[in-house]
Design a protein that fits this description.
alpha+beta; Surface presentation of antigens (SPOA); four-stranded antiparallel β-sheet; elongated
Length: about 90
């Protein structure tokens, strides 16, 4: 006998941390302290490369930066497959 589908409505109001990663860099404390207005921090990604969308520190999608009503946003271009998420757990 097949199980009835589970109702997940009770999860709809659970808060999640969502972050968009433009890139990363490792810096020495002295270099961070030397930053001031107008400083440029070079990231590890190339211009035009996909941004990563993380939920609770796990990559779930990739996208591109957009401007919507004078605010920055992200257009999702790829949802990470369940197989890729499982492979990342092993890394």
């Amino acid at each position: 006998m097949a199980e009835a589908p589970r109702n997940i409505d009770f999860l709809y109001d659970v808060e999640l941390d969502v972050a968009v990663v433009l890139g990363k860099v490792r810096m020495l404390i002295k270099d961070v302290l030397a930053l001031n207005s107008g400083s440029v921090v070079e990231l590890n990604k190339l211009a035009g490369e996909s941004l990563e969308i993380l939920v609770n520190e796990k990559v779930i999608a990739r996208g591109e930066a957009v401007v919507v009503n004078e605010k920055f946003g992200v257009r999702l271009t790829e949802i990470v497959s369940p197989l890729e998420r499982i492979q990342r757990l092993r890394d």
